[in-house]
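[agent] plan:
  1. take the single chain provided in the ticket
  2. run structure prediction with default settings
  3. attach structure tokens to the ticket
  4. add a short note for the reviewer (M.T.)
[agent] executing step 1
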Amino acid sequence: MIKIIGIIVVFACVTGGFILSHGKLAALFQPFEVLIIGGASLGAFLQANTPSTFMHVFKKSLSMFSSRFTHTFYLEILKMLYEILNKSRREGMMSIEADVEDPAASPIFSKYPAILKDASMTAYVCDYLRIMSSGNMAPHELEGLFDMELNSIKEDLEHPAHAVARIADGMPAMGIVAAVLGIVVTMGLLGQVEQSELGTHVAAALVGTFLGILAAYGFFGPLATAIEHDAKEELNVYEAIKACLVASASGMPPTLAVEFGRKVLYPAHRPSFSELEQAMRGS
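[agent] step 2 finished; step 3 output follows
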């Protein structure tokens, strides 16, 4: 909701200030300038990135107005880890083999559809549970493996934000391209049209610069930051999972292992100790 309010504030303040300064709103409607700036920026983005990055950015842009990383989601992650670790402690690591081989059919994983929907996160949990069930890796070796994979995950999660930020940085220049082309058109009309019409063409060219700067700092820059924040929250969940599983591999009981993970989560939506304790009792 707050992001929608932010977009409205940008539009309202920019257009409102222009109108109050006796500007005509229709003068800002320059579809060909938008075509030049938007098309050139899209083309540059496609040149610089892979198709998977483009799809990632597209999906993140559609979902930027809501976040799945909420208090409830964090609590579900910890509850799921508690259940799977508790089962392995009571019945042995081999008892969870069927759960990790086919999470969709698992009585434990299927209770948490929001987590199961994230195939990457589910695979991450299951892979390390498989490694733990082998019993051939010391806790510090397991932690080292976690760290190596988390570095790769971090790079992958942050790349879309960096890609959008680079396009945002280039949009003012695309606005200048549109403005220069507008001036070229205006110069070609010298001596052929009235002075008032020349002024209209010059104004249209300047709108190109305005739109490029506004798009960069009013919309695409914030979008890059929003995607970056989302990536940090997702990485934080992966780190919390790591803390739980490493603590369990070190011999901690499930109730303490998930507490290690809870402490890693960002405070904004982190469940309290008592909330987690009640959730585990309910499980």
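[agent] step 4 note for reviewer: The chain has eleven helices and no strands.
[agent] ticket updated
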